[in-house]
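New to this. Please check this protein:
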Amino acid sequence: LRRTRMQRNLRLRARVAAQRCVYTAAMDAKLAELVRLLALEPIEDNIFRGASRDIGSPQVFGGQVLGQALMAAYETVEPRREVHSLHAYFLRRGDFNAPIVYDVDRARDGHSFDARRVVAIQHGQQIFNLSASFQASEQGLEHQASMPDVPPPGELADSGTPPRELLEQLPEKLQRLFEKQRSFEFRMVEPVDYLHPQKLPPWQHIWMRAVGPLPDDERLHRCLLAYVSDYNLLSTALRPHGASFLTGDLATASIDHAMWFHRPPRVDEWLLYSVDSPSASGARGFARGMLHTQDGRLIASTAQEGLLRVAKPPG
């Protein structure tokens, strides 16, 4: 029976992979590259290998490792089960120039829930670990937090690239970072002056979506949602301090990341990311977020703590 189930799961995964190949052929180039990045190479039972891409940041983007680790866990659970929560720690910086190996521990296969632990390894060291729980679909009680009242994305400017006059004031390395084409587009409800940040309330709202249509593959949408959820969390903890990643006087890094999936997502449709930061202390900032669809459905919640260390002045 177990062998029959495994064979059925393999056939289903093969069909899904074939569908992804058809869609990526006609997809936006950067989005197709990201989808291919999540298609890990199996190298042994429960062990997978992934490549990286340079998005202009000093190290591998944390959302990439998060999305790949979740996809590795997905490869070991039955197709009818979907992730409902994950908890992760970023341990070391990732290297763009080397593959990342994902080792999956099948911690539990239950009647309703499966649990997985994933360790990401590079150069013989753990760089990231993830715990995730998967559930077969069930009906139950429902309620949700209301969506904030903000302008719709059609009334807002694209926030992915700063205005040309601002871009020209940035160091060349940062100009390359912002000029790189992205897989997602962002529209900020409360724009930020990155070079001359002011003290602002510790919250922000950002509309975001993939730059093109995606296949009806819920696993892919959940992994891509995990990927993009790493944007804009830690920056919210900087707002009340009039600080910015671009001023050069801060050392920042994600420490951990948690996520709860409440309802099926579609990342190729507009999602409102509502983020607030209740606290910063001990050279760490804490932020939490909610993701709503345009029609007001709460699809996911997030939380993250990260390093916010003020650089010491020279001398």
In short: Helices lie at 2-25, 29-37, 62-74, 164-167, 172-179, 218-228. The CA atoms of residues 250 and 310 lie 5 Å apart. The chain is about 20% helix and 35% strand. The longest strand covers residues 298-310.
